[in-house]
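Note to self: keep these together.
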Amino acid sequence: MTTPIRKQYLELKRRHPGAILFFRLGDFYETFDDDAELVARELDIVLTSKPMGKGIRVPLAGVPYHSIDGHVAKLVKRGHRVAICEQMADPASVKGIVPREVVRTVTAGTVTSEAALSAETPNELAALVERCGERALALADVTTGEVRVASG
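Structure:
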C-alpha cells in the first residue's frame, strides 16, 4: 500500500515521461526513484530514501526551493529535461493532500533562467514547415525575443 503523495507523484511523473520531476514538498523540491539517483549523481548531492507506504522506501534527493534555478540549469546543460511541480494551494488551508501541478518544463531550448544562459550563445527554437513544395524556416531566440524567418 502506498501513500497519497506517492500516488500523486506517480501520476504526475506518468504525465511527463522523460523529464526529471522536481516535486514541491514544503520548502524543498524532491525527486524520487530513478530521478533521485540521477539528480544525486549529476548535482553531487546526498541520495537518501523516504518511506512511501507500508514496507516501501524509495530513493530521494532534494534541493531547497530557493536554489532550484541553479540546479535546473546544471541539469539542462547536461542534456536533461526538467519538469517543475508546484503546490497549487497553501497546505494550511487544505484538508488532505495538497493539489500539485507541473507548471513548467525546462529544456535547452526553453530555458530562461539567468543561471543557465550565456550572452555568447543564442538560445533558439526552430520550426521548419513544408507545404506544396515551399519551405519556411523560423528561428526564435526565447531569451531576446528575436525572430528570424526565411522561405523559399
